[in-house]
Amino acid sequence: MLNIETINQKQFSKISQQRTSRDSETYEEVDKDVQKIIASIRNKGDAAVFDYIERLDGVKLDELFVTDEEIDQAFKQVDDEMITILKEARSNIETYHKNQLEKSWYVNDQEGIWLGQQVTPIERVGVYVPGGKAAYPSTVLMNVVPAKVAGVESITVTTPVQPDGKVNPNTLVAVSIAGADRILKIGGAHGIATLAYGTESVDKVYKIVGPGNAYVARAKKFVFGDVAIDMIAGPSEVCIIADHQAEPRLIAADLLAQAEHDELASSILVTTSKQIATEVQQEVENQIKSLSRQDILAVSIAEQGRIYVVDQLNHAFEFVNELAPEHLEILVENPFEQLPKIKNAGAIFLGSYSPEPLGDYFAGPNHTLPTNGTAKFSSPLGVYDFQKKSSVIYYDQQSLEKANQKIQKFAQAERLDAHAASIRKRFE
Amino acid sequence: MLNIETINQKQFSKISQQRTSRDSETYEEVDKDVQKIIASIRNKGDAAVFDYIERLDGVKLDELFVTDEEIDQAFKQVDDEMITILKEARSNIETYHKNQLEKSWYVNDQEGIWLGQQVTPIERVGVYVPGGKAAYPSTVLMNVVPAKVAGVESITVTTPVQPDGKVNPNTLVAVSIAGADRILKIGGAHGIATLAYGTESVDKVYKIVGPGNAYVARAKKFVFGDVAIDMIAGPSEVCIIADHQAEPRLIAADLLAQAEHDELASSILVTTSKQIATEVQQEVENQIKSLSRQDILAVSIAEQGRIYVVDQLNHAFEFVNELAPEHLEILVENPFEQLPKIKNAGAIFLGSYSPEPLGDYFAGPNHTLPTNGTAKFSSPLGVYDFQKKSSVIYYDQQSLEKANQKIQKFAQAERLDAHAASIRKRFE
Asked: Which residues are responsible for catalysis (chains A, B) (predicted)?
């Protein structure tokens, strides 16, 4: 049963804090294993990788890379309609992400001074793709395509190998359509360690993105600093803001779509209407019966789901900015007018015909989004995650001469006299 | 003595790896302390903060915030010329960084579909400012001004308190000129924990930036995920590419400016000219005698410094891209023409009148730059570090209807039937 709670402004911050501290797990045991795996792959390279694959994935491989033949075979196993849809989704994702491409720029505001910012792609990127039940082709597209758009030269996907020595054919097809350069059969923390430090047969990458289980997430945390990583994602969330005119049937369907991900997935409705609240509660009970993942749904709806009733629409936005949800649906009159009120959210879906699953697969914006309140400080995965900047400084003689005394004074104030000397010597 | 080494292309990657693994320190002891400090401040709030200040900074405070009176007093202690220079530097930094401001955008490529990206500032940011010898006013400006330009509503600076209960007046003046909203007298890991989790008297922030000692750096690593952090900076580095026409006297001065930071600071010359190499070596020996930080210089030049001689200019660029230096000076003919060859560098300084200290203090681009090879995947601190994005999706009824079957098929392929139902119900 989806609980209803009437709340006031004073409670917003506290409720948000409680919700974002869902993840109180400690990872001591996982961390020990992960650190051992990383150290062992750093020391022993390929030998350690093959060894972990045998021990943890239960298969003795003699080649870490997926072959072209295996990819061809995968295309035969996946149905043609699905391949067409994947290509259309890839194209939509590419079109949207091209808008994010940043350009180098320079300014020349003062004579003799040229300041700029040079934008370049990261040269080598690794993408982790989960195996098993979580082998989502959409995730492959969402992680690889932005890197391609950014102009990354070398994209290496790594994904768990199945006990038969093969990789999920849906994954292979999606990776191929997305345009990655090579695929490794290495899952878990050993996959992350291989990408981060390289081995005899695998070149190290400079950044690793992509979701994974606790081992993958903790391994990413440990290699952070030596390579860049994307945010570590928590359970998925949707928050729906609805006023009196929203349709309870659609709200319920969208809450359930989110809740089916896993038991910790969080589905929240914030509404100004008590009537909507009770109708949605009833609809959820009804609709759940016809869905296949009922065990998961029952748990996530009861334990993580909630309907919050607030007394005015502005308070709904204030509360949502505290929650900083991963997905936010705005099912109110004139949703566009409400956009400026939203400060913290991963992706914003406007109106009745923009349900969250549209964004998961198809519309084009990235579905890798900040969870667990991190939309307060981070962004969807994007092209900007695969580009980087260098600042560029040019002064001519006259311009430096004008600044000469000031820079020397500044350097002396910081007691760095070799800094001062470096400027001074230009004019001796 | 600055060593000279003639190297060839095959050695580039190995040398770069050796250089970027300078930091092989383990932090077990520091980590234990830091984790204890964080846990204690999360549990006990202000009481724990006051307690750590007494124990670690040796002063019993009864107020964590710097008062307006203390700031007024600081302005009287700092000389007026320095205040004017600080203001001019702030203005230059602001002007440059305004070019980095990102705007929200939307596209309307297909009828009935509206896709966009909403850009918003992070609401609350914390800036760590080191105390003691490393209390650099330039660091204050470089960290606070980009946050101001981004439109951050609330900027909290935290910095160690001196045993007399005061804060370094240079720091206070710089913070005030930079425009932060408040200053806390909390240094070390306890400063980071206070910003990350908040206490009764201090609001938690969403992102923490700024340099610090090992305790600060490790504390930032531990709170990462709960709040965002900037990159953890290593020792400072300069790399100079010089051809036969460069002036050894200026090259030597610039190498020494970098080397004076600390014993681990790294000063590298890559040149095509053996003559330049030996002349620079001699100049460094000569110039070092007239500088005040001779003890530091002797160590960093001998242990971290190096002159690499390569056989052609293109190889110099190839090598530098492997090194990915924090600062790169290009002292060759027509330096602008070489810009496209640079893939990995924090800041690029072009020609003889753009020495690195110009960028440290004055020109405007940020001096917080990726170190230790991380320019391969990260950028200077910038306005983009204080803005974040939300994607925006709007489909009208017709547009969703067109995509309806495809999205359902995709969702079914991922075995998420509540996702499919959420779309389907729009058309029942």
From this structure: 326 (proton acceptor), 327 (proton acceptor)
Residues forming a β-bridge with A4: A307
Q: How confident is the model at residue A21 (pLDDT cuts 50, 70, 90)?
A: low
Is residue A315 annotated as involved in ligand binding? no
- Residue in A59, A69, A65 with CA at minimum distance from that of residue A199: A65
DSSP calls for A335-358: HHHHGGG--S-SEEEESTT--HHH
Q: What angle do CA B43, B47, B49 make, to 5 degrees?
A: 85
Domain with CATH 3.40.50.1980 in chain A: 4-23+234-364, 28-229
pLDDT in tens, A195-233: 999 999 999 999 999 999 889 999 998 998 889 999 877
- For the domain covering B4-22+234-364, report its CATH number: 3.40.50.1980
ipTM: 0.94
Spatial CB neighbours of B419, under 8 Å, sequence gap ≥ 6: A257, A260, A357, A360, B407, B411
Residue B22: band (very low, low, confident or very high) from pLDDT cuts 50, 70, 90: low
Q: What number of other Cβ atoms are within 10 A of residue B54's Cβ?
A: 12
3-state secondary structure of B198: coil
* Rounded average pLDDT over B49-72: 97
Give the list of residues 6+ apart from residue B371 with CB closer than 8 angstroms, or none. Answer: B231, B233, B234, B235, B236, B237, B326, B346
DSSP structure class, residue A386: S
A414 is in an annotated binding site: yes
Superfamily in which the B28-229 domain is placed by CATH: Nitrogenase molybdenum iron protein domain (3.40.50.1980)
pLDDT digits (tens, 9 = 90+) for B283-293: 999 999 999 99
Q: Tell me: pLDDT of A24 over 60.
A: no
Residues of A in contact with B290 (CB under 8 A): 421
CA distances from B417 to A137, A258, A260, B427 (A): 16, 11, 8, 16
In the predicted model, is pLDDT for residue B24 greater than 70?
Answer: no
Domain span(s) for CATH 3.40.50.1980 in chain B? 4-22+234-364, 28-229
C-beta separation of A361 from B407 below 8 A? yes
Amino acid letter for position A13: S
B 155-194 residues with CB < 8 A to A? 170
Instruction: Render pLDDT for B35-47 as a digit per residue (tens, 0 to 9).
Output: 999 999 999 999 9
**What is the predicted pLDDT for the residue at A25?**
65
**What is the homologous superfamily of the domain A4-23+234-364 according to CATH?**
Nitrogenase molybdenum iron protein domain (3.40.50.1980)
Nearest to A6 by CA among A407, A313, A274: A274
Pairing relation of β-strands A387-395 and B347-350?
A: parallel
The backbone torsions φ and ψ at residue A175, rounded to the nearest 5 degrees and listed phi first, read -65, -40
Tokens of B425: 């119900």
Span A115-133, pLDDT tens digits: 999 999 999 999 999 987 6
CB pair distance less than 8 Å for A416 and B89: no
Q: Among partner residues B96, B136, B388, which is closest to A414 by beta-carbon distance?
A: B136
Give which of A218, A273, A202, A180 is closest to A33, Cα–Cα: A218
* Lookup result for tokens 């992509």: A210
